[in-house]
Amino acid sequence: MIIVQKYGGSSVANPDKMKAVAARIAETSKKACVVAVVSAMGDTTDELIALAKQINPMPDGREMDKLLATGEQASSALMALALQAAGNTAVSLTGGQAGIITEKVPSKARIRKIDARRIKQELDSGKIVVVAGFQGITDNVSSADITTLGRGGSDTTAVALAAALNADKCEIYTDVDGVFTADPRVEPDARKLDSISYEEMLELAGQGARVMHSRAVEVGELYGVEILVANSSKQTPGTLIKKEDANMEIRNPVRGIAHDTDIARLTIVGVPDRPGIAYKIFHGLAEANISVDVIVQNVSEAGVTDLSFTVTNADLDKTRHALGPVLKEIGAKDLVTDPNVAKISIVGSGIRSHPGYADRMFGALAEESINILSITTSEIRITCLIDKEKVKQGIRALHKAFELEKV
Amino acid sequence: MIIVQKYGGSSVANPDKMKAVAARIAETSKKACVVAVVSAMGDTTDELIALAKQINPMPDGREMDKLLATGEQASSALMALALQAAGNTAVSLTGGQAGIITEKVPSKARIRKIDARRIKQELDSGKIVVVAGFQGITDNVSSADITTLGRGGSDTTAVALAAALNADKCEIYTDVDGVFTADPRVEPDARKLDSISYEEMLELAGQGARVMHSRAVEVGELYGVEILVANSSKQTPGTLIKKEDANMEIRNPVRGIAHDTDIARLTIVGVPDRPGIAYKIFHGLAEANISVDVIVQNVSEAGVTDLSFTVTNADLDKTRHALGPVLKEIGAKDLVTDPNVAKISIVGSGIRSHPGYADRMFGALAEESINILSITTSEIRITCLIDKEKVKQGIRALHKAFELEKV
What is d(CA B58, CA B317) in angstroms, rounded to the nearest whole number? Predict the structure, then answer.
């Protein structure tokens, strides 16, 4: 049996935590071959970014990848040392040594293939294998470039390795107990879910639930890897992310409330209502690698319309910068930004087959006098843009309206 | 023209120092292709060692190499970013990316070969190449292991790269002005040497002069690479390490005074005077990778003798441990250690052809009432073991006796 386990940065933030995680890995290794994927210790990645920005405010992607990859390389070596100190045989591998071959795209490289020969050889010789998360290499030669997989990259490393090794389990250990019906810090009645479908998890992640990054879930769905998300410092069962099954039919069609306050709304005022204008605007943003959400275009009046959308706060400056020349070109009147907005969403695969959920959602928000600024929907999600100050009130109202405290 | 420059840890200890070094490299790159080798920032290596020891007091060599190599990987990426911030095109390479292939021996791997294709390709495309010092890889595939080259490893990286690239210059920048006739902190009249032979430099380095590590000098001698040692924060000319030339004939036959206080003397008391005993003792120490110096065996009395030698203070515990079983086996009476000793040496290739230098050295020490505990010599060096407290007094006496303040 092969088990892939991933431990995040807060789980390996200092020597004592490393030793505690090593004990968990060692325990698992009594009954299975273990591949442990580790993130950089604590805030290492942020500290390296800050250091780089002191030296170069606009750092090159390739060099940043090489710099940031050192965080996981160090933590993987330290974890191997912690395992060895406790009497286990263990070996650490960088992403490159583990055979994780990626595209040649800095900061957000996708995995092209995994050459798992070295991992298998180490497992066959009875070792616990510790793999540096978040990183890969552009080719299987030592002169190739080091890449990183972007936000949540260590989760992706773990799920991709589980797929390549045909592992029996893939376990993502983090500092939360699993996936909840809503953020438990906001809604005390929020309930941990025992299982959730890939699709639902993707919608929750895309709407600001920080448990797991979308890419790892996508890889899991693609290769049919069931992913357990659980707390690294407890023995609680966690949440299993898997294919939708028949049992899901008889449960609450709404699975959870997601929210995201880390966004800003931009409104382009006075856009001439001509074909190709929207393409011009959003193509420029896509080129600049800016993710856009909740796009709303008003009904045109006298050949002129307003167009609004949201981006993450981190992307706000970059978005303004990228829009500059486009707005001039199309002759827009003004660009208005509003940082005081939040997204709130209901997610559940049952939404697609049960009509009337939008209605109930809008009603619950109206009852709390929460104004809806924009609406977007997917097959299994309804998202409203609301005032940032009302987001907690909105979460509680929706959690109650859809009876999410009940199984 | 290709110039290889190496900058040590104190020269790149923080962002400001990195930027200053980047300016120097950029200046050089106006007239030549530059390969810059960098050490880890400031005390990074020591901090990583301390962290590892908190997790595992007897850390495995392979994992330590992987951990420590992150220090140079990070500083090389940051130096590339500093060069780019100042408008240069630059790329950083790990030891593996630079094609530095080593033996598979942790912590002190020797370089087997250098595959300089990637460096040449980057230089050909007009880039400044920054190479992470101190490290290599065991093979040219991405699954190979990362190794480190041991103390002074970044110097070795620079000299070996200069040889592989057939570079026109190899410059080692450090925090001293060059090689002096004696430690200038002890002897105010100490004079910087404009040049020194490989052989003399090796004897000085072996006797505690901390300017450059022996291995790099050996590589330089082997491949005929002239090495300039100079101060990274000044524009002073430094000292050139090169082949002995005719001019060296007419200068002072003694080139410098070396000293080393970081040693301890061990005396094995009551050693049976039988063939093979010394081999048993020193073979065990060699196996444990302990360097031994100033070996003295007293005249045998009644078939029993005393044997004494020195090791570095860092190796003292390991030496005691390694000697334990051997002393039992040979039936030695006792092991006495004395940490209050120091080595003091005169070095110069002229010593070999000029008799009477030992005599003058012993006389100068006697005049200061400095007792000589042991003596060893090489062709171009005479070393005395003396009381640690008398070492400064000894340096000054010898500097004066051999008129080293004069060219």
Answer: 14
Nearest alpha carbon to residue B39 among B259, B206, B216, B225: B216
DSSP A305-327: EEEEEEEEGGGHHHHHHHHHHHH
- Dihedral sign of CA atoms B330, B334, B338, B341 in order: negative
Instruction: Tally the C-alpha atoms within 13 A of residue B108's C-alpha that lie toward its C-beta.
Output: 6
Q: How far is A326 from chain B (nearest CA, A)?
A: 28
CA separation for the pair A129, A123 (Å, rounded) = 7
Select from B47, B49, B81 the residue whose CB has the most chain A CBs within 10 Å, as the one to mutate to test that interface.
B81
Overall pTM surpassing 0.95 (yes/no) = no
In this structure, what token pair is assigned to residue B125?
């495309």
Å between A211 CA and nearest CA of chain B: 29
Smallest CA–CA separation between A88 and chain B, in Å?
12
What is the C-alpha to C-alpha distance for residues B167 and A83, in angstroms, rounded to an integer?
A: 44
Confidence label for B278 from pLDDT (cuts 50, 70 and 90) = confident
- Alpha-carbon distance B392 to A284, whole Å? 71
For residue B73, give how far its alpha carbon lies from the nearest alpha carbon of chain A (Å). Answer: 7
Residue A246's pLDDT is: 64
Of A67, A82, A145, the CB nearest to B55: A82
Amino acid in position A39: S
- Identify the pLDDT of residue A371: 93
Tell me what pLDDT residue B302 has.
Answer: 81
If you count them, how many residues does chain B have? 407
Helix, strand, coil percentages, rounded to 5, for chain A: 40, 25, 35
Query: What residues does A180 pair with on adjacent strands?
Result: A192
Do the Cβ atoms of A97 and B144 come within 8 Å? Answer: yes
Tell me the chain A residues in contact with residue B85 when contact means C-beta distances shorter than 8 Å.
55-58
How buried is residue A270: exposed, middle or buried, by Cβ count under 10 Å (0-12/13-18/19+)?
A: middle
Size of interface A-B (CB pairs under 8 A): 141
The neighbour count for residue B277, using CB atoms within 10 Å, is: 20
Contact map slice: A 134-153 vs B, CB within 8 A: 137, 139-146
Interchain contact, A56 vs B84, CB within 8 Å? yes
> Is B47 within 8 Å of chain A by CB?
no
Nearest to A142 among B81, B82, B137 (CB): B137
Tell me: ipTM over 0.90. Answer: no
Q: Any residues with CB less than 8 A from the CB of A305 and at least 6 apart, and which? A: A271, A273, A297, A298, A299
State whether residue B82 sits within 8 Å of chain A by CB: yes
Per-residue pLDDT reduced to its tens digit, B184-210 = 999 999 999 999 999 999 998 877 777
CA distance B84 to chain A (A): 8
d(CA B236, CA B223): 26
Q: Cα(B310)–Cα(B266) distance, rounded to whole angstroms?
A: 6
Nearest-CB residue to B55 (from A51, A85, A137): A85
Nearest-5° Cα angle at A214, A212 to A215: 110
The CATH number given to A2-175 is 3.40.1160.10
Least Cα distance to A77 among A113, A48, A38, A121 occurs for: A38
